[in-house]
Amino acid sequence: MTIQLNVWSVFYACAAVQGYFLAVILFSVAKGSRTANRLLALLMLLFSIYLSDIFMSKAGLFYEWPHLLYYGVPLWYLFAPLSYLYVRYLLAKPVRWCWWHMLHLLPFFLIIYKLFPFYSLPAEIKIQFWTGVLKPPGGTMYNFLFNLMNPVQLFLYSGVTLKTIWEYPARQENTAGGVAPAHLHWLKIFVGLIALFAISDFVMCIYYFVYGKMVTEWTQIPLAIFSLILYGVAYLGIIRPEVLFPEKLLPKRNGSGINGAQAKQYAAQLVQLMASEKPFLDPDLKYSDLAMK
User: How many domains does the chain have?
Assistant: First the structure.
């Protein structure tokens, strides 16, 4: 079998390989929120698996390894909840976990349940389903609704996530754990690209359901989006790491209750005390002891 490669295939393959490296690096980065970094690492890993899956399809590699067909599909249904959690933890607004949060994984398990019979098929039958010789069981409407679940899920989660970002008040910069506007700008771009992927995937699902075929050029849109995210994260990690790994801001003090004249008086007394008694030489000196003086 001859591997079929073109410029786009190489572009996506390079993005996927870079994503695997990013996942390893992000998982071990100690800057900023470690939980957010690990969630982003997991997203980079899933995006890379998605691109690798498409690359193998376009290059015809599934003819050689048919048992790898559709193994990455259930992972697509983790994009939405992981993106939401990443934003929440980067904004220092962690989720309070309850048992019903497991419902976030419901689409993931539904797709595994749907594909499980396919995974146990012989290699020859898998290739026939992949090439369209055999049609998937369940009927057109049944499969259409399953295909539609991913873009709808992504779009709904993107809306909730963007709402979380936009409601993040400006005064939050003055509170413990707040992040700067540059980080909010990055999050808006990130979630916006996820929403754009959801819209493009939704349009392709509708078109395929109505006309029974896929426009090849349209399939480049989601691939390009994930590639841009992977290349963008790599760029920020190298050129502007402070945007990708925000440090928690310390809260600003609202005031101590003394006016300017009193502050100057206390400062002068402190300077005089330091010059005369040299309390800074005492290794056991405490703030309370200094205040008593």
Answer: 2
Q: Is the dihedral of CA 211, 214, 216, 217 positive or negative?
A: positive
Q: Are 81 and 43 in contact (CB under 8 A)?
A: no
116 in a domain, yes or no?
Answer: yes
DSSP 137: T
At 110, which helix (H) or strand (E)? helix 106-119
The pLDDT of residue 99: 77
Q: For residue range 166-196, what is the model confidence (pLDDT) as tens digits?
A: 877 644 544 444 455 667 788 888 899 999 9
The answer to whether the pTM exceeds 0.90 is no
* Same structural domain, 11 and 65: yes
CA distance 214 to 218: 8
Q: What's the CA gap between 86 and 194, in Å, rounded?
A: 13
Q: What's the CA gap between 56 and 121, in Å, rounded?
A: 20
CB 199 within 8 A of CB 151: yes
Q: Which domain holds residue 281?
A: 260-292
| DSSP per position, 22-81 | HHHHHHH--SS-HHHHHHHHHHHHHHHHHHHHHHHHHTTGGGT-GGGTTSSGGGGGGHHH
* Candidate from 34-38, 67-71, 240-244, 251-255 with smallest mean pLDDT: 251-255
Q: DSSP state, 249?
A: B
Does one domain contain both 157 and 266? no
Q: Minimal CA–CA distance to 149: which of 205, 229, 212, 227?
A: 205
Q: Is the pLDDT of residue 121 over 50?
A: yes
